[in-house]
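Batch 3, record 17
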Amino acid sequence: MKALVAVKRVIDYNVKVRVKADNSGVDLSNTKMSINPFDEIAVEEAVRLKEAGVIDEIIVASIGPKESQEQIRAALALGADRGILVVSDEKPYPLQVAKILKNIAETESTDIILLGKQAIDDDNNQTGQMLAALMGIGQGTFASEVKVEGDKVNVTREIDGGLQTVALDLPAVITTDLRLNEPRYAKLPNIMKAKKKPLDEKTPADFGVDMASKQEIIKVVPPAERKAGITVGSVDELVDKLRNEAKVI
Amino acid sequence: MAILVYAEHDNASLKKATLNTIAAAKQIGDDIHVLVAGSGAQAVADEAAKAEGVTKVLLADNAVYEHQLAGNVALLVADVAGDYSHILAAATTTGKNFMPRVAALLDVSMLSEISGVVDAQTFERPIYAGNATATVKTSEDKVVLTVRTTAFDPVASEGGSATVETIDNVQETGKASFVNEEMAKSDRPELTSAGIVVSGGRALANGENFTKYIEPLADKLGAAVGASRAAVDAGYVPNDMQVGQTGKIVAPQLYIAAGISGAIQHLAGMKDSKVIVAINNDPEAPIASVADYFLEADLFEALPELTSKV
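Prediction for the assembled complex:
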């Protein structure tokens, strides 16, 4: 079986985000970029499935600026076999990304397609679901456990109020939640080896996909500041403030 | 054209998230229809018909919709979508699961977790874990949205008198089936709709301390119990109690954070709370920067005292 894993280059999750003064977006110049944390979990799951003998080959795809090859190389260092970079200078929106991934998944006849549940920049949580819909296949979103059994995969999903397990025919799309696994660190020899692994470069036009979206970002502003709070000296003072000042209890 | 709101429910009763979603729909237009997809869900449809502002309820009652599997529900919604300009669902795990499928079936882009309505084509939504708010304009003919429920006050659950129309639309992908469900049991109010939330973090040190220190305070206040990701990952409490970017987004009247440092990912889930109280022994903890009232104290002493005095 083959797996396709989609990874996105995003601002590192530890970086404190700054909104640009002209409100056109978030300032990404000179900031540390990484693989989206949920995508790292997707790579790790694919590698574990390979180690378990379920998967023979892992293909990693990324759609974004040329620099996204760093993220593909990082995934290759974690154990993926080869990469496909679709270079696009336009902002990649989920629908367009899903259309490109569908093309790749069908050309490569992949059986399991793994994505993160959401990218921590746009917080959309859409691409995996859109991909499954376009391909007309099943989806297991917010996965916390993945078990392949024959030509089916059982996915345990984190839902509001608890857990739900669904059985999906393969091929299927799975999007990862945080508790699915703990991604490994790349070892130095593997980082060196990853440099020799194949990485194909493509453009959206190769897949006949127009990256233009019917969404336009008008402005980006920082969230409203909370007014400064006060430090209370005792539980009595806290109870008094909550009762008489904030009037919330 | 009318607006379609997808009803959030458990086949027995309508979830409050639907009322918040209807409130968002009302800011877009007046003719609001609610779609109830479920199995044995007549009572849900009747309840939806009474909600303020609803003009019609569509009930698709069939076993294939019992667990609201994304594939089946998306086909249903896309099938009835022709009559609507906007399609809305709450940004719950149900809404997030099937709505992008609907958008892809209609070949339109989608807006997730809107927190504000500027006009019928323009919406506000948080990005970067709530560290920025984007205003986005869409030129799609059909606008597909999920709604951050805590950003909209719910409409009244009584007073409406919509008609309920049964539709016998049966859609099944045949590619996915339900196996089982394990729900965490709780007698307390639901986390996302509670007026008060008491949350604990890693400093609680174990699950027994949640029972011993957090729960009595929550019960006294009639509050829901939440947790930080650290507390969930350490196994102190089940993960459906997690508040944060990757867990639940809450905005109660009062949020009490005990032993929570306040990482970006946690703040993204609670910083729209009206009043935030932090109890922490570290005055430098990031939670102090968003707290209205900060009590520098050992939570194992402060929590029992607080419980006895409220």
